[in-house]
Every structure is written in structure tokens, then in C-alpha cells.
Amino acid sequence: METIPDNTRPLDGPAPQLKTPAGATDCHIHLYLPGFESQPGGPKIPELATVEDYRQVQKRLGLERVVVTQPNAYQRDNSALLEALTQLGVQTARGVAAVTPETPTETLREWHEKGVRGARIMNLPGGAVTQDSMLDVERLIRPLGWHLMVQFNGRYLDDYLDGLQRIEGEYIIDHIGKFMDPVPADDRRVDDILRLMDRGNAWFKICAGYEASVTGGPHYEDIGAIAKRVIAHAPERIIWGSNWPHVGVPREQYPDDAEQLDVLLEWAEPEVRQQILVDNPARLYGF
To answer: Whole-model pTM above 0.90?
Structure first.
């Protein structure tokens, strides 16, 4: 049995400057529960991150709804995700699972009842399901009204563009396109993202700018320039996530959770923040 330490991350602190509207939604967190081990092929779990832990962060940030994303550590074993959704409740929580082309339809229906609404496609190291299976997975989940959550290094968008253009259902471009290192906002690959948005089935998630930014917080000017351009172009298809508990960076680089929300003060006008935090996720996730 894998021994996983209790959480030592800070769960509280000063409130964000942004006053969240009713129904504000965190569209990207991960949870690591007691009794669930990391799986071969994924990273080890450094410490637990429970529903109770996240509730404290959620309260600090003034959030009401949440989307739990299957972590790389669990690979294709969604047991912890489903348990987390059970604890959180379908009234205020949704999930994004690791789905393969072989996942039985009856299993998907069972997951749907628990709140799962998406399938994760992870094209970075440790990903459980990659673009090789993406279109097959998308065909499988489309009858349920689910979407794909697709993550890749935006600098290599050319490698993924054809597949993204062939997706018929809804999908999310994750983590601000995750350009590592960031490119100028007028880069041709950002142009390509805008064209994908114009097709009508792509969403764009403002999340974890700290993972790719070179300029750093609290303003993340390099990533922010990309985010602001995409937000201005398609505000009706933008969502936001905290990426808590930030397992992709070492503890000395751990970001402030309020800072991750406050970027929206600079990147979006008040009426657009209402769309990003409430209206858009309600439409995508059925809250």
C-alpha cells in the first residue's frame, strides 16, 4: 500500500480582490484521496488533497461549483474521481475522466449519473489518454453530450491542429494553450486558436498560467497577452480554473490561489467575468 502524506499546502489566506458572482465555478482541480494509489505510468502523489481541503480553498476564493479533473497519477483508474464526485454531490460538482475507446457505454452512463461530463486528452508526459485515441473517444462520448478536455504544448500546435479540426463535438483547449515558453499574442499559432474558436465547438480555459509563464506572477504579462486576445475574441466560450493543488510545480514555486483568480481583473471586463465564471461553465457542464 502506497503511503501518501497528509496535505501540507496552505489552504487559507487573504481573500482575492475579485468579488465572485453567485454560482462562480472552478473548472479545473485535482483531488487525491486517502486509500487510492498512483498507477504505473503516472507520477507519484506527493501528498493528499481531499474534498475537505479543497472546501477551504473554495470558501476563501468565493466559489460555489467545481469541476474535478482526473489526475495523471491515477492514469485510467477513475475510482478516486468518482468517490470525490460522490462526496461533492452532483448539485455543485462535475468531473472529467480518463476514457478510452474500449470504455463500455454502460460504464459511461454510470459515470454520467455521478456527474462526469468530459474526457481528458493529455498530450504531455504522464498523460493517460493521448491524441492517438482522441477522435475515437470523442465519438464514444458524443451521444452523452460530453466534451473533450485537450492539453498540449501550444508551441507544437501544428502537431495537433488536424485532429482538433476533425473533432465534431465540444472540446476545451486547456491551460491557456500552455505555450512553453510563451509566444507573442500575435503569433500564428494564436491565430490558429482563434480560427478553432470560430468553428463553434472549441472552448478555452484560463488556468495555470504560472506553469508556462516566464515573467511570473502576480500579473503573468506574457501568458496574459495571449489570454486577453482569446477572451476578447470569444468571451462566450471562455472558462476559468484554479488548477489546485498545483502539483505540476515544486513547493518553492507554489502559486497563491487568490492570485490565480485575480488575473481576471486585468484580463476581462466585469460583464465578461460573469460569463467566464458563471454563465459559460453552467452551459458547458449543465449546472
So the answer is: yes
